Amino acid sequence: MIEIKNITKVYGSAGAEKVRAVDGISFTIKDGEFVAIMGPSGSGKSTLMHILGALDTPTSGTYHLDGKDVSSLTDEELAEIRRNHIGFVFQSFNLLPRTTVLRNVSLPLMYAGVKVEEREARAKAALVSAGFNESHFLHLSNQLSGGQIQRVAIARALVNNPSLILADEPTGNLDTRTGEIVLGTFQKLNRENGSTIILITHEPDVAMHANRIIHIRDGKIVEDKINPNPTKARTDTVDKI
Amino acid sequence: MTLSDIYHETSSALRANKVRSGLTMLGIVIGISSVIALIAIGNGAQSSIQSSIQSIGSNLIIVMPGATRTPGSIVSAGRGTAQSLTNEDATAIASQVSGVVAADPEVSSNKQVTFQGTNTRTTILGTGDQYPTVRNLQIADGSYFTQNQITSLARVAVIGPTVVTDLMATGTEPVGQEIVIGGDTFTVIGVTVAKGGSGFTNQDDQIFIPLTTAQQLFTGNKYLSTISVEADNTNDMAAVQADITTLLLGRHSISNPTNADFSTINQADIAATASGITQTFTILLAAVAGISLLVGGIGIMNMMLTTVTERTREIGLRKAIGAKKSDISTQFLVEAVSLTFIGGGIGVALGILASYLVTTFGGITTSVTSSSVILAFCVSAGIGIIFGYYPARRAASLNPIEALRYE
């Protein structure tokens, strides 16, 4: 359950011209929702993502994640929130280079202090959920294709059972077909595991895969609507990475 | 993070840039190995000087006559020239000063020595029978003269190995030969064990004859050039030295100690001076090596800063998935410390090898002490911590958003 109320983020020091990157945004996202936050570049969606991802704190307003107020935490407390409540999928540089798939996925568990024996089992389960082929578990990250990398990243985002999976332009570096596969993976996780997913994108086609679309422009919500007919990713290709 | 996690992260990071890690480590390897080798050379020099000081006797106090001063003149002929010490002084020291094991009177002169046509000029030392004890002299062949031979003014001589090689053909048995010292014939009754040179004198190029004989034939008086005193133990040396001074002042009827007609030298003082010199020398060598260690440390810092910049995105990613500041700083600090520690280990091995080679091929005594090895390890770990701290802090304090955006 995500509840943000009247969030603003102002850049620039006193005196200089201030930039209101996020200007009074409020919304609630319930557990199990698949939401796309859409807007052109410069709309403030990245800043919003940083706040939602506990990478940054808002200038004003409140942010409750699972009932916990995240808007005024210290760096170390934010790290704890990221560690235990949020899973990230980025556009690029998602995986550590020269590191096996399994180890990449176990990384959040390592920082969370999970025992070594338990990590491997959980990482394997997450990889299976993300539809990653078992025979590639010990491949190094630089031996993977773009689509495979995103699936490993999704598995890593899943591995600590987060309240929220935050995907920042996850298909931005992929061709349409592979992007489709990645979006299909998100849909499958949302449908089958009940994962809460927030997808940040500037592409309307990508946003159409979510069940709810929040439009942002100039730091404000211009539209927040339910998407009654989400585009169904072609599932026939989903399992073929 | 468990230890095995840290190990894994570190080894994969260091392996990622093998050449760079290797070259950075090389700075530490050179620094540590030169510290080890140079300290070993310094220690070797120190112990060889100490042992040559020990070879002139243990717990030794040497009493020498003072300077001669012509009455009414201020010209001094130098220490040791005065005729102020007598056999009786030596006897008195041996019998009246507590803590004295033996006191041996000596008189020295330089004479021409001949043997079957060959000749040499060397130091002729007239001594008492205690000389071998007091001065740590060992007899290789034959024996030293006895008190009876001293009393009877026997014309017998104990000669040093250098004298033997100077005078006699190889293979000649020296004991029993007759040599001529300053015109008088002496029978060789013993040869001393080689001691090697100590400082400016060659202890092997000497001939020992009974004190009484030397006084009768060569100096013509009852005065001594030295009294060698052996003290009971090292701790009492200062007290024994003071007692001797008091005794001799009394015997010579001198009330003001500054006018003493003799002087005493304590072997411990000589050893202290010598070890002071070698210590300075060792510190100098270690300082030079220390500078190369410092340069190596700066190399580590340089590499770690480059690494932090290169891996900004990785740091951002790690922070995004929940790494604490301390996780990041530990990771980078351990990387730096491992570099210096591995470098230190290789450096210690190379340093030991280098000192071994110096001993084998350079003929210089070296001694690698465990304390210098421990010191080297601590210093290399310390360098890793000091020079790794700043880059690690920098990595840990990166803003995750900035780090993720970094191109």
Key features?
heterodimer; A: about 240 residues; alpha/beta; Rossmann fold; six-stranded mixed beta sheet; four-stranded antiparallel beta sheet; B: about 400 residues; alpha+beta; 2 domains; six-stranded mixed β-barrel; two-stranded antiparallel ribbon; 13 helices; elongated
| CA-CA gap between termini of chain A | 32 Å
CATH fold name of chain A: Rossmann fold
Largest sheet of chain A: 6 strands, mixed
DSSP strand tally of chain B: 12
Bin the strand percentage of chain A. 25-35%
Main CATH class of chain A: Alpha Beta
Portion in helices of chain B: 55-70%
Order of helices and strands of chain A: EEEHEEHEHHHEHEHEEH
Please give the alpha-carbon distance between the first and last residues of chain B. 28 Å
Greatest chain-chain interface? A-B, 30 and 23 residues
User: Quick one: overall form of chain A?
Assistant: globular
- Oligomeric state of the chains present here: heterodimer
Strand order of the largest sheet of chain A: 6-7-8-3-9-10
Number of domains of chain B: 2
What is the number of domains of chain A?
Answer: 1
In round numbers, the mean pLDDT of chain B is: 86
Rounded radius of gyration of chain A (Å): 18 Å
- Architecture of chain A, CATH level 2? 3-Layer(aba) Sandwich
